[in-house]
Design brief:
- The protein is globular and about 70 Å long.
- It is α/β, with parallel strands linked by helices.
- The N terminus is likely disordered.
- The longest helix is centred in the N-terminal third of the chain and has 30 residues.
- Helix content is 36%, strand content 18%.
- One of its GO terms (cellular component) is endoplasmic reticulum membrane.
- Keywords: Endoplasmic reticulum, FAD, Flavoprotein, FMN, Membrane, NADP, Oxidoreductase, Transmembrane, Transmembrane helix.
- Its EC number is 1.6.2.4.
Length: 681
Amino acid sequence: MENSEGVKIESTVVTEEPLISALDIALFVVIITVAYFWYFKRDKQSSSSEKKPYTIQPSSLSSIEQTSNSSFIKKLKSTGRSLVVFYGSQTGTAEEFAGRIAKEGARYKMKGMVADPEECDMADLVEMKEIQKSMAIFCIATYGEGDPTDNAMDFYEWLQNGDADLEGLNYAVFGLGNKTYEHYNEIAIYIDQRLEELGATRVHEIGLGDDDANIEDDFVSWKEKLWESVCSHYGIEETGEESNIRQYKLVDCSEVLPERIFSGEISRLKSYENQRFPFDVKNPYLSKIAVNRELHKSGDRSCMHIEFDIDGSKMRYDTGDHVAVYPKNSSELVEKIGELLNADLDTVFSLLNTDEESSKKHPFPCPCTYRTALTYYLDITSNPRTHIMKELIEYASDPKDQEKLKLMASSTPEGKKEFHDWILRDNRNIVHILEDLPSVKPDLDHLCELLPRLQCRYYSISSSPKVYPKSIHITAVLVNYTTPTNRVNKGVATNLLAQLKPTNDELPQPTIPIYIRRSQFRLPPKSQTPIIMIGPGTGLAPFRGFIQERDYARKEGREIGEMVLYFGCRKKDEDFIYENELQEYVANGTLTKLHLAFSRDQPEKIYVTHLLEQNADELWNIIGEKNGHLYVCGDARSMAKDVHNIIVKVVMEKGQMTNSQALNYVKKMEQQKRYSADVWS
């Protein structure tokens, strides 16, 4: 017999059998059983992960390895350690402090380890009491408007929502904050109090570091007293041994294939050649610079309007968000380090953690060349901290240089003063130190271990996605200044951005890695809600996006509320940025009022705060009588504080309240997101 395509089919005579055999039934039962267990096991795992969001594991590990890796208790027990130092860090400082504490633990017979709470099952804190003379120390930064850092968010929520019995846990907390912000060290203070509420024992009082002053001094002073409390609590004594053991060992990578060598990628090898969505802090998007133009009309200062092309990236942003920009150090400074240390910057190397149990195998992406490390991964322009001074001592061949480093590394009043004057006041970075102490010649791999990571820079987005869905705009002042030693220090990011000018020909356009950071700085949900915006200088940036969005709504025929903008700069004819745009928004009715303060266009200086005081009736009318929103963007150290004081005064006078009632009113505005600040120091 053949089918229609001419293929021969054999015809066979068979005896008649039932349509469903016993074997068919057995197979059917097996399939149903497997499907049942697969479905419900998956559902159970999903539910479990929702209940314990603080446990995050690398996707490449097996389930057995994941359980093992998340348990810091098992690591402590298996390696004979009794000290664990957790860090909540956004810029790397808290992580650095945690490493220094863990390293010093050896001097007090407490072998330590550093741990990222995001990678740990923090519920295991209840088991710390099983380890004799154990202790957990927390170095916690407060970020944004009193928020935990990204890697401490799940731990913070676990403390808030849980009721674990932490009796037997010994702990101490050091907070990293900035006094110019309202929520100074709020997260560290909460964690310190909450741990005690859950039954843990505070071994040493909380330390509060102020980054607006001298956070290094705050940390060192607290750390010294910490160890005194530890010795008293556990009945132990300092061994007196200085621990200068390297955390990372040098690995020769001269034989590594070129395609396996990092060249500036943040996390994934070749990630800039093979871009993958979603884009975030570890996987930035390589954006083209579409526009880079000068905003200042004259003068010796520069302010840039820059547009990042995100067309095709699938990236989405909201008005008020921030964009993170990954900079790189100037080749001039990098080459200078190579010259000072007589090093071949093109040598391929790797730094491998000597602690095999650590989840952090390398301090930055390895292997790479020294040139790559110094260009993309290491901060070579900030003021080094005292522990770097201490580590450099052994590399000084001149006794005078040795003594100077020893003095600055010490915690004596004389040492602190010398460090403050020579490093902080004179604004020396590692290059300047190597220039001014010529006998200091550290091994380059050790220097790479000591220097902190180069951090991305955040900018308020100055555009609305409603108007510019395919690009992100920023407004940035070029940072250049002369130090007391007559050196010119240049802002890492802004000087790089200044060089990235798009071309009009067919040459490849300049690019830079970016990602979007979400913000709570938002327009009211209803477009008819009136708002007041206070943004002198580049503080105007997010309000440019706000105005664009309201203008878009108006053109769509929607009702929009009053928009009042307070803007200030030095001189109208010099640094009045976006002048034509703002005047156009006033003319078409989108911007109800534009209050301008040009501080140097008349003998007496006039600032936006002066105009606010003059317009107290308008201010109260919007925030008091019409339930409007108020926004502040710019300098946190003085301007934002002055604005806050003026608001309280206006609420007192126009709302006929006492000082206490006015403060509570303003506090309630903040809680209702009717008073928002996007400030920096």
